Amino acid sequence: MTTRRFIQLTVISLLFMLPGCSTLSGLGKAQQPTASVTQVSFADISLQAITLNVHVRVHNPNPFAVQGAGLDLHMQINDNRLLSVAQPDNRMTLPARGHADLILPLTVEYAALYRTASGLRGKNEVPYALQGHVRIDVPVLGEISAPFQFNDTLPIPRLPNVSLDSVQLVETSFSRVRLNVTLNMNNPNRFAIALNQLGFQLNANQRALAQADVGRMSLNGNQQQTVTVPISLSLAELGSALFRLLGSGQSIDFALNGQADVIPDLPGWQPERMNFDSAKKVQW
Fold first, then answer.
1. Within this chain, do residues 96 and 149 fall inside the same structural domain, yes or no?
2. 46 and 34 in contact (C-beta within 8 Å)?
3. Domain shared by 225 and 148, yes or no
4. Do 56 and 77 have their domain in common?
5. Which residue, 155, 178, 212, sits at the end of a domain?
6. 258 closest CA partner among 175, 156, 166, 185
7. Is 94 exposed, middle or buried (0-12, 13-18, 19+ CB in 10 A)?
8. What is the tally of structural domains in the chain?
């Protein structure tokens, strides 16, 4: 038995000998406080990083209040420690037979995530584990530790893909040419996203033909969808060189350059601007 433990037991025994001291008597029957993660919520998310709010509840079963003495938290991915958070100066108060709630922000950079765990490219999510301890000062007994752990999956957001699917010649005349431009959109994420202010410029043989505004498109998780945009061009807009290629059997190199605001259906995500480009060789 250590000298410190001997002194603690001696003090507790002396306290029991004092009459009418029910609170002091309770000290000798001190129970271990417990800690648990009640939820993990998204505070902020982007294509570069995600910030989680880890909600920890600490319960004090004792008939007297105690003080927190700090905490530490570790996140692991595939058994590899990704990051750690320590709050050695956390001085929360745990009321008698009550609890206290803590919120710990945890920011994960996806670049660090890819460096820590291999084989994550192309995945929509990755399992993670949280492990931590809340240190608590209990009168007489000194500092004790309340462990907690939590397991869940971390989303890995990816940009949707917008590509040029086809360019169809609908009508030609001596004054106008009508085209149908079809875009293919693919959402590789498990959550829904919206593409707001979707627009593009269409080029043919490195010549700018037209600009179009598609507006807002919504895609469910892992959904692929097409949209066809009609474009009407005058002969002046088309140009004589391209006009002579229509129906000639020669191929035309079409290129698409566009932008959209990506708005995922995830709390904490702010809209992000996305650029896309695509090319396709068409022969009519």
1. yes
2. no
3. no
4. yes
5. 155
6. 185
7. buried
8. 2
CA distances from 263 to 194, 260, 269, 275 (A): 5, 9, 7, 14
Q: Per-residue confidence at 65, pLDDT binned at 50, 70, 90?
A: very high
Same domain, 168 and 147: no
Residue-level pLDDT at 222: 92
Q: What span, in angstroms and rounded, lies between the C-alpha atoms of 199 and 284?
A: 25
- Tens of pLDDT, residue by residue over 25-41, are 555 578 889 999 999 99
- Least confident span in 5-19, 200-214, 216-230, 268-282: 5-19
Domain hosting 236: range is 161-283
- For residues 29 and 38, what is the distance between their CA atoms, to the nearest angstrom? 27
Token code pair at residue 94: 């745990």
pLDDT band for position 48 (cuts 50, 70, 90): confident
Last residue of one domain, picked from the residues 121, 155, 189: 155
Same domain membership, residue 139 and residue 121 = yes
Quote the pLDDT of residue 91.
77
| pTM of the entire predicted model | 0.70
Tokens 């000062």 appear where? 137
Question: Is residue 47 scored above 70 in pLDDT?
Answer: yes
Cα(130)–Cα(118) distance, integer angstroms: 19
